[in-house]
Amino acid sequence: MAGGFKADLTGSFSTPCHDNPTVVMVEAAYRHHNMDWRYINAEVQPDGLASAIAGARAMGWRGFNLSMPHKVSVIPFLDGLGESARLINAVNCVVRVNDQLIGENTDGKGFLSSLTPIHKPEGSHVMLLGAGGAARAIAVELILAGIENLTIVNRSSSRANELKKIADAAGNASIRVMPWETQISVPDDVDVLVNCTSIGLGDASATIPVASSAFRKNLIVADVIPNPPKTHFLKTAQEAGCRTIDGLGMLVGQGVLGIRYWSQIDVDSHVMRKALIDAFS
Questions:
Q1: What is the pLDDT of residues 198-209, one digit of tens each?
Q2: Do residues 154 and 160 make contact, with C-beta atoms less than 8 angstroms apart?
Q3: C-alpha 5, offset from chain centre
Q4: 177 φ, ψ to 5°?
């Protein structure tokens, strides 16, 4: 073997990890591009995160992803943050730079790569359900892309207001916070409705309490959940005639960026999406 018997290591730390399909698309890209790299999907509880990162340092991992619930709690264990991660205050991708681990955020850019082919964000009103790490990333990137209005709906008003402060610092969009109610109403002028919560992850029957009247034909409805690709939320929207965006587009988009950070190689996104579709079929 020209490269010997040592592969470059990458992976993901999350809990639960069994329903995270990132490994499928990333390893497909590695194979397609003849990269002697591996991606390890690791179950890491919150109290084990520091040890997991120390292990990645000791073993010389080239980088790793963070998924729920580690995107914010990982920050104290890193050596620095990239510009996007600093603004968002959340990390989903860690990159080894020499002997340092630097936190980046590719979630928001991944979402934009799936939204812009069907809807240009400039001047839009976007409504986000949730205020966690994914919501922070998406909100900041949408504002940087020129949306005019942002509405945030979250169970915890304090966390929603934290997101509002982050979004206010990103640009000049008009931002408001709405309460999470038994039936969530969607203002008539909303162009894009996005589920940024974990509701539906690994459970195609899990429901989000959005009023059925909200799903009108001119509304674009997106979900960040990649597994299953068609959540109950998206099925309901599709049946009402809405245009929908599944979580695979965001997942593939952030995956392409992550591999570029780790290896400086631009991989084929079509190979990655096909691997995910094949896995789910």
A1: 999 889 999 999
A2: yes
A3: 33
A4: -115, 135
Q: Are 129 and 153 contacting, i.e. CB atoms less than 8 angstroms apart? A: yes
* Chain center to CA of 279: 19
Residue 90: what pLDDT?
86
For the annotated catalytic residues, the residue numbers are 71
Q: Which two tokens stand for residue 167?
A: 């979004």
Q: pLDDT tens-digit profile of 166-185?
A: 999 988 999 999 999 999 99
Return the pLDDT at 2. Answer: 52
Query: Rounded to whole angstroms, how far apart are CA atoms 87 and 6?
Result: 36
Contact 137, 91 (CB under 8 A): no
What's the pLDDT score for residue 14? 96
Q: Could you tell me if 227 and 19 are in contact, meaning their C-beta atoms sit under 8 angstroms apart?
A: yes
Distance of CA 41 to the CA centre of its chain: 16
* CA–CA gap between residue 36 and residue 152 (Å, rounded): 43
Single out the residue of 214, 275, 202, 271 nearest to residue 241, CA to CA: 214
Mean pLDDT of the chain: 94
